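User: I'm putting together a teaching handout on how multi-component assemblies are represented. Below are the sequence lines for each component of a complex, exactly as they appear in our records. Could you produce the 3D structure of the whole assembly as structure tokens, so the students can see both representations side by side? Please keep the chain order the same as the input.
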Amino acid sequence: MNIIMARLPLTGSIIALLCYLMWWPMQAQADEEGMPEAGMPDEWVQEVVTDEFADMLAELATASFPRKVELVNTLQLRGWPGVRDALAGLLEGELYFSQEEQPEGIRVYVVSGREGDFTLLDPVTQQTEQREALSGLRRITTNNPLRRNLRGAVARFDLLDESPAVRRQAVAELRRGLDSDAILLLRERLVTETHRGVTRDIEVALALYDLESSDAEVRLTALEVLSGELGNDVYNRVQRLLATDASGEPLEPDAAVRHMASLAIDRIEQRRSFFGFLETLFFGLSFGSVLVLAAIGLAITFGVMGVINMAHGELIMIGAYTSYVVQLLMPNHIGVAILVAVPAAFMVSGLVGVLIERGVVRFLYGRPLETLLATFGISLILQQLVRTVFSPLNRQVQTPDWMSGLLRFNDVFAITYNRLYILIFMFIVFALLWLVMHRTSLGLKVRAVSQNRAMARAMGVRSDRIDALTFGLGSGIAGVAGVALSLLTNVGPNMGQAYIIDSFMVVVFGGVGNLWGTLIGGMSLGLGTKLVEPHVGAVMAKILMLVFIILFIQKRKQGLFPQKGRSAEGH
Amino acid sequence: MKLPRSLEAFADRSQVFDLVNPAVRSPKLDVSHGTILYLEDITVSFDGFRALNDLTLYVAPGELRCIIGANGAGKTTMMDVITGKTRPDSGTAFFGQSIDLLRLSEPEIAQAGIGRKFQKPTVFPEHTVFENLELAMAGDRRAWKMLCARLTSEQHDRIDEVLALIGLAAQRQAPAGSLSHGQKQWLEIGMLLMQRPALLLVDEPVAGMTPQETERTAELLVSLAGQHTVVVVEHDMDFVRSIARTVTVLHEGSVLAEGNMADVQADPRVVEVYLGEPA
Amino acid sequence: MSDRSLVSRLMQHDLGSRIFIGVLLLVGLGMPLAHLLLPESSFLHPSTYTLSLVGKYMTYALLAISIDLIWGYCGILSLGHTAFFALGGYAMGMYLMRQIGTRGVYGDPVLPDFMVFLSWESLPWYWQGMDMFWFAMLMVLLVPGLLALVFGWLAFRSRVAGVYFSIITQALTFALMLAFFRNEMGFGGNNGLTDFKDILGYDLQATGTRIGLFMVTALALGLGYLACRWIVGSRFGRVVTAIRDGEGRARFIGYRVEHYKLWLFVFSGVLAGIAGALYVPQVGIINPGEFAPLNAIEAVVWVVVGGRGTLYGAVLGAVLVNYMKTYFTVAWPEAWLYALGTLFVVVTLFLPRGVVGLLEKLRRQKA
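Assistant: Of course. Below is the structure of the complete assembly, with chains in the same order as your input.
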């Protein structure tokens, strides 16, 4: 790729950048959509079971509770498809039956959806239909003994499921209400279970049950299994072994068990704090990626060109608003809209950047303080413009489905997908920018102009065009950052100001004119802030970060990665 | 990985730390051994490129020394080291016997008695010629003293004297920014004189001057020698020939040859690396 | 180059300073007199509102002078001067807070309302002594001065200059703003300090007190101006300007550049602190918003608009821009930021010497 990129002409390289920016998320989307639909009904089996199954369900609808328990027990012994749907539906209170007399008798449906948009599934035929309202349907009632029964029944089905994830879910479900039936079920499963994760979960569940045993030996063995287990229920249960009653007598009579329990708690807490640290670390990386995204455009305009662009934050804001507008234009395709927004924001912010450069900044080269003031004026105008066009209120950009949700590792450690994606996105943007700067003719010319304008001109580089394009590139990247940020925070006229000081800090800290410096500077500031935050609070952490940079600059004026050489000495 | 400098100091047993030595705030210039400037084994590198390479140079009091050398020979870097603008990687630089130049800041070096004229004339453009000289005048430089500072008649006379010497008496109230290039060069020399330095470093004094101006500059520098020590860096070989007693040739950051003009010119190495090249 | 030197020559004759002092005398004495003597129906009678508005402008003018002193004459652009302004204001605000005494909502004789609200037991150590006027005034000078001293010492010693200095001063005021927003800091958090009752025993709402404050502000502005004028006219001032135009050269002549910068910066910070202290009793509130970096940059624009490097230009700019602001926020609030933004751009592009430079050009063309 490097070789191809190197030969690309100037405009080509920008198009290439755009293409890559678009290509990556599209690809991700395609993968999502390519997932096969699961659970196709098998016609042949259906034919055979239909009648008996339908009759039993019809009886279930109106039977007494004891009879319902019997029916559920019978149903679960038949392995018909649709039985699980029906039982799970009954458990969740989603199983309805039609009251009106029909030739085929009472019919039963699993209902999902909400008012105005219901989906009815007939467990017997596995066919669905859409309805606006539930008129003529009545919920099949349950009581506590029945629900306990049902939970076991559903779990029994799920314990046999092909997917380990479903099996683990089933074990977790059973753990919530452990009784002898559930234990029996789990013991049975443990013998045949091959998946290590599921085995472990079952062992933990059994051990939890064993803690209730009157035999201290059994309790001790159970504690050995539970030591270091991260689940909240385990922690609370083991903690209870250490509690005392009103008169100060320990609830757990056996001293050895108490000792073992406190060891287990220690171990659990140790592991919890480890995962807590991992979580802090991830927050730090995530915050760092936000800082780098916000600063990386500035690393071009300020770092490479030496232009103090105080409107940088507003270019980020424009990118965020672009993402908002694209969502407005494509209300039915939120997932795609965010992908369209990336190149769109690059173009819009880049264009505004070029206008700023051509209209104002180019008259002020070599006068950094004046540039600072003029671009600050532009930032005020842009803010007010957004207030006029969109209103001063904050706007919300919806997170598409494929970016929402949690990646859960265990009860105490989970990371959100949008932060993870933004972290990855940051690295991609960084890599592309690095390629543009170091492997394209545009990058070569930009670096040439920034090092020696007169010489570059003498070599035939059209320096004013390069200036405009560089500024546009930096601004466009700011816009792309805005799209990412719009998924994390509200989009509003003031959002740019929130990032401008941070961005400058990152660039200055990392070393002006050094992309790597910006990356490492931003990530380390992000990590540092989040590591300090649990101890001093968010605002104080921010203040400490600013003070740290102020002091750091005293010590190393040139940042973490200074530009070396004779030219740097002269300034 | 090399040890950081601060750590190296601890490893060196003969090291005497600053805190042990009594602080010398305004050291007196001591030239009792007949040398005013000692540069020994000075090395400066920028990003791997050695601008000065084990440079060793001694200058005697009252001497007029010319330094010549091709571009990049290290002339300007040498001046930067002497005046404290650049710190060398290694080596020692002493002003007289007792003043360690590497420990002093630029203003301290200036106050110790080293004046410098830059290659490109740098005067204060918004100040008048008179004010430029006033600012350069020797004396107390402390900030709060400056608030109430008044010119004594003696100081006034001194400024007038220098104004006459540099031929700018008529322009005394003109802003320095409005002077011609040659006049700025002269004004800068005048500012040097106001400082009354023991050692003058003059970087290309006659660049951009007319032949008449050049001649007058030569006269001035020659007349200064004896009373002051003058080190001149110059490209103009005729000018060097007209003033020099001793010439030092720099090449690739070290001294290539030293001696009187005739000897140096006859030195085959010098002919090869410097004089041999088309000027 | 040549138009710059023209300005510096103008300073020698200094017509501008004479006009400024004249106008200040007229305003400082004339307006209170007119307020007291003329009937309310008179066209020339300034209302209490006008009086406190002009008083506010004068504190802004003092802030502008302090910025111009370091930027116009020494080339140090501080984007954090509101930090000193606000600190001076807070010191004054603390004194006024303590003067409320039992008249607060909770009626606590010692603790200000917000501390009672946060159920603090006792006064934090840094609030001690602020009930004494002389001590509070000392703090008005010392706190901004010390901050300027420490910050300036750090920055100038390691030769942080130009844009870097501007950015870290901005970070400084931003950090202070965040800190003062915290309730734990003990400065009233979000709401700041307000509901002041009286100063030195005089009711803040009384006409007499307002006129007194107005005249004290005019006096402070006049004295501050003359002090700056004196500094700028002394050899110290010439060294400072020399540092602006050729820092390296000044160093090689033997001036310890960082000392000059530091003392000038400290003086400027103290001046800004005084401005803040005079501002607070006249507007009746001080809150963390005063630290906002936007305010600091706005103050820099006053100086640009008036003409940097001329003290009276800074005053003129402060009054002009703030008059515009007052006008816009009443007549057409949405347009104010457009106007301010455009002002930034137009002035830096077309009027590098500000209004004073423009007037000077016109005068030269006429001559």
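A couple of points students might notice: The mean pLDDT of chain B is 81. Chain B has one domain: 34-275.
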